[in-house]
Amino acid sequence: MDYDWQRTFGNRMQEFNLQHPPSKDDIAISVKVRIDSGCFHREHSPHAYKIIDDYLASIPNKERCFAFVEHESGPEVLMFVTVATAGILLAKSIIEFITTIIKARSEGIHKGDSPSADVELIVRRMVKDGEFREEKVLRFGHMDAVDKKAIQREFKKALKQLVKGKKKSKK
């Protein structure tokens, strides 16, 4: 495990918590759209980022319940999920935004963005004392159909695992 990355990730999550104080039933998570190899950022994916930027611009700031962070390995969305007795509550706009990012990647490649490596959808959260948990949700090739309902279903499954902590914590 890369401890510098882990410390940086922990700091990013802590800063998000400070800037957007959660309610008592909320937990902060990171949703990462990570490319297998190469880069997925503005320089190599201008067409995809145009779609992403247009989507972000369509959301009024007061309704934006997340933070968008760009990385060479792919974008990350920092957000809160509400853990309630009825289950995990997730804003519909989050699923739409994540679906938009994945579709934008595919559409960008069709318009000339490179490279065309697969992307993984990953959810993470800090637990305690620098520990974090991670769940891989789905993997998409640039030719794969992007199904919002499948993303939502698998995303919720992964969130349940992440919150319950059934998988081994990473340190």
Hey, roughly how much beta strand do the residues contain? 25-35%
How many helices? 4
The proportion of residues forming helix, as a percent range, comes to 25-40%
The backbone outline, from C-alpha atoms, is globular
Low-confidence stretches: 166-171
Number of structural units classed as domains: 1
Give a written overview of the molecule:
This protein is of the alpha+beta class. The protein has one domain (3-164). Helices cover 38% and strands 25% of the residues. It has four helices and six strands, in the order H-E-H-E-E-E-H-E-E-H. Strands 1, 2, 3, 4, 5 and 6 form a six-stranded antiparallel beta sheet that branches. Strand 5 (119-126) and strand 6 (132-140) form a beta hairpin. Helix 2 runs antiparallel to helix 3 (92-110). The longest helix is centred in the middle third of the chain and has 19 residues, at 92-110. The N and C termini lie close together (7 Å).
